[in-house]
Design a protein that fits this description.
It is built from three helices and four strands; from the N terminus they run βαββαβα. The protein is α+β, with helices and mostly antiparallel strands. A four-stranded antiparallel beta sheet has the order 2-3-1-4, covered by helices on one side.
Amino acid sequence: MYLLRRVSVAKQWKEWEAAGLLYKLAKAYEKVGRSECRVYMSGEGTPGPARHIYVDWVTEKIEAPNNAELPQEVFDIWEQLKPLLEEYYMEFYELMTQEKIEFTG
């Protein structure tokens, strides 16, 4: 199992607009089979880097989505989102499970 996290850094004063679009994007991906996503942000009243917005989800394997299977909604949201972002990258984490602990122990 893996935890994938999309990290977006919004342009100044665009944090909430970008977070709203990232939330809509996460829901669009869920409609086509992605596990439940969480969207959260730091800065603006909470500790952490300013203007950072995160989306994470758990998956059995790491694989790129098949663009042919994605609804047009995904591409439309991305077009609205791109001008609001300064930076965008992915982080990948392997989740520890009981089976992995027993295998390595």
